[in-house]
Structure formats: structure tokens, C-alpha cells
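Justification of computing resources. Each target in the renewal requires a structure prediction run like the one illustrated here; the chain below, 332 residues long, is used simply to show the kind of job we budget for.
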Amino acid sequence: MQPFIDSFVELGKLLSTFPAELKWKAHLHNSWFSLENIEKALRGVEVYLQEENLRQWLEKYQDRLPVKKPQKVAVVMAGNIPLVGFHDFLSVLISGHILLARMSNDDKILLPWFAQKLIEIEPAWRKKLFFVERINEADAIIATGSDTTAQHFEYYFRNKPHIIRKNRVSVAILNGNETREDLENLGEDIFTHFGLGCRNVAKLFVPTNYDFALFFKVMEKFAEVKNHHKYANNYEYNKAIYLLRPVEHLDNGFLLLSQTTELASPVACLYYDFYENIEDLQNKITQWQEKIQCIVSKEAWWQGSYPFGKAQYPNLWDYADGIDTMDFLLNL
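Resulting C-alpha cells:
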């Protein structure tokens, strides 16, 4: 297992040299990928690749690493946020399998740099790592997509071992005792990556008669999102929809809040719903359990939640959709 860890630890040390021109190229290719959000994604990968984190993650699997009979594992990557497929990239390679990576057209600039540097560190990776357009030769599949796409994946790959991930979003639980700092951190969970990630907060659960005055005041810190043309277009479009229907809502000039029992809000919108007590809140959370990626709350007071501001920084062992990717790979 040591050579596998060493290669990725060395890769992590090279992140400070990530070329500025590649960041710009990725941004120009997909304007949703702001330079700030690319930097945040790179810092998240840097944390992944710290030796202590890699060891802690792999400790429970160490007796099975690496696999004795490597399989070809295809990873069909999403492209909603920068480097969203990196965890699968890392998992397949560090398990000892052969990676067939099919990148999203929206996020195809950044990951090849990691592959190139990894091969420079250890040339043996050249036989383990391939970027492909077709995945017919794969022995197993890991794919991420919309609910509709997932149905096609489930059917097409029904005869092969697979993990198929569907649409998920994240939620925040407020109790009314949040400070300005708490709400600023929550704003990071809402606005990082313009709300496009499955770990972005798309809905608030707030106590009955919650006063949004401080919330809106603090959210002004993130007003610059309205200067992004795609975000602004989404805001204007959804505002028009709300006015035409009409939908009762709150509006601060760049974020639309509306009360609903629904979960997944569009870009530039944020849903909220009231809860009367803890039992009522638990029932609402349970109702959407299969669609919630993660929960955030003040100092993580809600069991199983993250502190405000930490939604976009999962640990290596915080698997998407709650499915243990490494266990899946080691059981192939």
C-alpha cells in the first residue's frame, strides 16, 4: 500500500505549482468555473492528498489493498463543479484497479494535469490510467448524472457491477440562534460554485416565524455573484417566473427565497420550510433522506451534520450518496 500512498502524497505537494494558464483555460472553457472556485477545488484536493488523511481513510481497508486481480473500472464523471470526479479518480487508482476515465466536456481541462504529474512521479501509473470516450471494455462502472441519465445507466450497465449516482442536494438546519459569523459560513455553503454542486445548500429548515432580516443582511457579502452573467441570467429568469405565476417570495437582488415543501431549488433560488419542533424537523428530513447529500447546522448540533461552511470540504471517507466507493472497488 505504501507506494500507492507515496505517489499521491507527492502529487499533493505539487499542487502549489498548478499552472495559472490551466486555471484560465478551464475558466474560459466553462465560465461557471470561476478562478476562485477552481482554487477552492484545488485546496480540497490538497487536503485529500495529505498523508495523514490518506492513511486514516485507507486504514480500514489495508488488509485488502491493493486488489490482487485488477479490473478495468470506468468512471463517468460529472462536470457541474471543478474536479468533481477527483475522488473517484483517486479511489480507483489507489485500490489497484485500472482506471478508464470518461470526463465531462464541462470539466476536461484540470484532471489531465494530475494524471500527467502522477505518471512523472511514478511511471508505472501509465499502465493504470486512461482517458477514454467509450467505456464498453469496462468490467465495472461508476457513473454520476441526473436522475434521468441514471435510469439509462442503470439499464445499460445492469449486467456489470456498478455505482450509479443520482441528483442530490444539501440542506441547512437553523435554530434561530445563529450569529453573523455562522450565517457568513452558511453563505459559503450556499454560494460556492454558484450553488451547482450536490453539496451546496439548496434548502433551509427554519423554526416557525423565523426572521430572515439578519440572514439577508449577512448574505450581502456574496452579492458579487450577480456580476456573473450566467448566474444573473438564472436570477432574472427565475424572478420572472416567480412574478408571473405568481409565487410569494423574498428577494434581495441576487437571491430568491420561497417557502415550499420541495427540496432542490434552481440556481439563484433558495427554498425554505418551517418546522414546529424537533420531531417535526426529523420527519421532514426523513422524508427527503434519499435525496439529501449532506446537512449543515451551527457547530454541527444536528446529528450527522457538518458545521456551517464545511459542506464543500468532505473527508475522503465521506462518500457521495453514502455508498462506500472503496469497499465496492475492493469487492470486484
